[in-house]
Specification:
Radius of gyration: 33 Å
Helix content: 40-55%
Number of domains: 2
Distance between the termini: 26 Å
Number of helices: 13
């Protein structure tokens, strides 16, 4: 077996390399899955809402509050307050979301009730401002209310309507015809002409309706109209005002959004684990043998020093390429599963190149230190030091130094300084590539820049990557061939 083939087999079958490749591919795939499966182009509010209804029984008025989240689902432990004639009445929502209070109103024909509610955020109570509700005895019970803009829990880019019905003594809804149509149309037109959506529903207090929509609907606003069994309109949202609500805000996924998912997930784990694979593979397969004298016994065979270091370096580099390549492949497959599109070929190639450069550069640095240090402990210490300083803490070091020099984080000098530090370490290389694709730079206070104006272009990055791989290995090669 040729030396290069032997070294490749030896490296790829070592327990450390196998474990690291499995860990890198597995964790990067897991992060890609997490990023893709939880991605929401439309941020969903976490603030609870309360809708109100009412009914009367004798001389008492029962206020009905329904606490729900953005999806229309009930929310418990919301404190709801009703003020009438200077007296406060309160209730706390249970698992059903309802918080009802009974108010003695006598024989009043018109009642004004001020409502508000409070909820807890990080153990701190937040109270809403009071909202007045004017209640006439000609409109008791409140009947049907239609609340638009309810988020579809299965697809946060789609919206629907929440229907809240409060009958006498809290009874459920009778037969109701529910129509959805273009908001530019009059309510009677929506009811009489073929509408966008129609349902006949009954027997509910709370009902969420999510009509089927497509991307073609994203530029249209809609209104909802409800009629009773005889066709009389009993509730509606805004109609004939052109200010209805959209049923979707979906926008096609872009390459930039896909790339952001990769940078926020897969990149993070590769930036941490690839240097570990490189540093310790270099020590275990070369640095350790170099300082223990094992290489000398190998050199007694028809193998030159130059071919030995080259073959072991190549075998280590191949293991890095395999880890990065499979991480990219599995991440791309996961992204395609969720979004129906793959990452661009150019981005995928840059991505693999980026972490190949980072890994091979760390590999070459440890090979170089293997010919400078005189003992196994010194080589291992140097390898760990290289990882800690040039990878683990490198994102913090530039910030600390620039801060100590009192360089403003919003200044051009700060940007130049950050870029210079990124060029000065293999771990900064991925940050440079990310800046080229996203136009963003900075770990804590991100800034938008024009990358080419600061020396971040594809040709310069490729040259920098080649230099990071070649220079330390060339030094190690020369030391191996002519010094030892």
């Amino acid at each position: 077996m040729k030396p290069i083939a032997y070294e490749i087999k030896r490296t790829l079958t070592s327990k450390f390399v196998i474990i690291m490749i499995i860990a890198i591919v597995g964790l990067s795939s897991l992060l890609a899955y997490e990023s893709a499966s939880t991605f929401s182009p439309s941020p969903v509010s976490s603030t609870p809402q309360v809708n109100y209804g009412y009914y009367a029984s004798g001389t008492n008025l029962t206020m009905v509050g329904y606490a729900h989240n953005a999806y229309g689902q009930p929310v418990s432990k919301i404190s709801v307050y009703y003020e009438y004639n200077g007296t406060f009445y309160s209730a706390t929502s249970g698992s059903s979301g309802f918080a009802n209070a009974t108010i003695p109103i006598g024989t009043s024909h018109t009642v004004n009730v001020d409502t508000n509610y409070s909820y807890i955020v990080f153990r701190k109570p937040i109270s809403t401002t009071q909202t007045p509700i004017r209640i006439s005895n000609t409109r008791i019970p409140s009947g049907l209310e239609i609340i638009p803009g309810i988020v579809n829990p299965t697809n946060t880019t789609r919206f629907g309507y929440e229907l809240m019905y409060v009958g006498q003594n809290g009874t459920t809804a009778p037969s109701i015809n529910f129509y959805i149509g273009n908001a530019s149309l009059n309510a009677s037109v929506i009811v009489s002409s073929p509408s966008f959506s129609y349902q006949n529903i009954s027997g509910f207090n709370i009902r969420n309706i999510y009509p089927s929509v497509t991307y073609a609907d994203h530029n249209t606003t809609y209104a909802a109209v409800a009629t009773n069994s005889s066709g009389r309109i009993i509730a509606k949202t805004s109609t004939f005002t052109h200010d209805g609500t959209p049923l979707t805000d979906y926008a096609p996924m872009t390459q930039k959004e896909l790339q952001s998912l990769v940078f926020s997930g897969t990149s993070e784990i590769l930036g941490f684990l690839i240097p570990i694979l490189a540093v310790f593979a270099a020590y275990l397969t070369y640095g350790k043998d170099r300082t223990s004298g094992v290489l000398e016994s190998v050199l007694k065979r028809p193998v030159t020093r130059g071919s030995l270091i080259a073959s072991r370096f190549t075998s280590n580099a191949i293991s890095i390429f395999i880890a990065v390549g499979f991480s990219m492949i599995f991440s791309d497959l996961i992204i395609n599963h969720y979004f129906g599109m793959y990452l661009s070929t150019a981005f995928s190639l840059y991505f693999v190149w980026t972490y190949l450069v980072e890994g091979v550069a760390f590999l070459a640095i440890v090979y170089m230190f293997s010919h400078i240090a005189k003992s196994q402990g010194a080589v291992l210490g140097a390898a760990i030091g290289v990882f800690v300083v040039m990878d683990l803490f490198w994102s913090i070091i530039p910030i600390a130094i620039l801060s100590a020099l009192r360089v403003s984080s919003s200044s051009t000098s700060y940007v130049y300084g950050t870029i210079a530090f990124n060029y000065a370490s293999p771990s900064g290389y991925s940050s440079l590539v990310q800046t080229m694709f996203t136009d963003k730079i900075g770990l804590i206070s991100s800034q938008t820049i024009v990358p080419s104006s600061f020396g971040i272009t594809a040709p310069i990055l490729i040259i920098a990557g080649i230099l990071w791989m070649i220079i330390p290995f060339t030094i190690a090669f020369v030391l191996a061939k002519y010094r030892d």
